[in-house]
Structure to design on (97 residues):
């Protein structure tokens, strides 16, 4: 079983730069770096889509994804509180009758 190799952000940026800024082909750069050419194309695409937040790192999220996760968590909390209040209202309204 082969272990999955991890590359830091700077390595990925430099690998993409070797393809974009030089006259070298992606297959040649990938072979020299010991990576799959498809991985190099994926890094190039990710860097082109969002240069500032590309490759956030293991376990880290882009700021937009982190904000979305936070908002979803807050929504779930508010919905749970609402459901508790509905149940409490139903219980108290039954006792009055």
């Amino acid at each position: 079983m082969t272990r999955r190799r991890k590359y830091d952000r700077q390595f990925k940026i430099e690998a993409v730069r070797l393809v974009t800024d030089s006259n070298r082909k992606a297959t040649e750069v990938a072979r020299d770096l010991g990576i799959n050419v498809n991985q190099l194309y994926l890094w190039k695409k990710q860097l082109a889509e969002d240069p500032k937040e590309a490759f956030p790192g293991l376990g880290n999220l882009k700021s937009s994804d982190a904000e979305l996760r936070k908002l979803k968590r807050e929504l779930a909390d508010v919905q749970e509180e609402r459901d508790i209040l509905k149940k409490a209202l139903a219980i108290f309204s039954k006792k009055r009758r």
